[in-house]
Description:
It is a single chain. The chain has a single domain (16-207), classed as P-loop containing nucleotide triphosphate hydrolases (Rossmann fold, 3-Layer(aba) Sandwich). The protein is 52% helix and 11% strand. The protein contains 9 helices and 5 strands. It has helices at 27-38, 45-53, 57-63, 66-82, 101-108, 118-125, 139-157, 169-182, 194-207, and strands at 16-21, 42-44, 88-90, 109-115, 160-163. It starts with 15 loop residues before the first strand and ends with a helix. 30% of the residues are buried. The protein binds shikimate-3-phosphate. Shikimate-3-phosphate binds at residues 23, 27, 46, 57, 92-94, 131-133.
Amino acid sequence: MATGHKKNKEYNKGPHLILIGFMGSGKTSIGRGLSYKLQRAFCDTDKMIEAGENMTVSEIFRSKGEGAFRMMETELLRTIRDDTSPKIYSLGGGTPVQLQNQPLIKMCGTVVYLRITPEAVYERLKGDKTRPLLQCDDPFAKIRDLMAVRTPAYERCADIIVDTGDTEREDVMEDILEKLKEAGWKIPEVRKTEKESDEDTGDKRSQS
Ligand code: S3P
């Protein structure tokens, strides 16, 4: 049966695990932890952009402007979409907001949205100087307003939603792994980290 001429190349859903969420939701920290548990490389797109430009995100915002940074994010998403070796990527908090990025993000792989409240973000990022958007007189109002605008974009992109903020990092990771299993992912059997093994040994000693 004729399907008609396809103007654009079609993409299957990619092999990556993509972490999205507001600044301070724990994408980098959770991504690093999951890298061990899933035995996959972890990449932080802010760090990739910084390495490519040889500048920090703050310097890029200052010297080239936010618009230029947003174009770099979109360009990088295309590279991630075309990367066939499965990885974990954490995206900057503003990446899902650009409309043209949303289909790209979904094509990259399974998208996990780390949901957090404005109050928890404020507590975590009080005094942070690395997020140019929060260098203002009333960072809490800025967080609240940005989050109100961004939440629908995060929800649109997400395959899986997990709550962070009041939850321990280890529990957030377990929650994600559980939901990935439900979605049909094979989770590798990995040895415990050195720290966890030490804690186990301690437990056994105290029981004996
Ligand atoms: C931004 C979030 C930052 C970084 C830049 C802009 C945003 O990343 O990309 O400062 O618009 O929310 P993190 O979410 O990793 O902090």
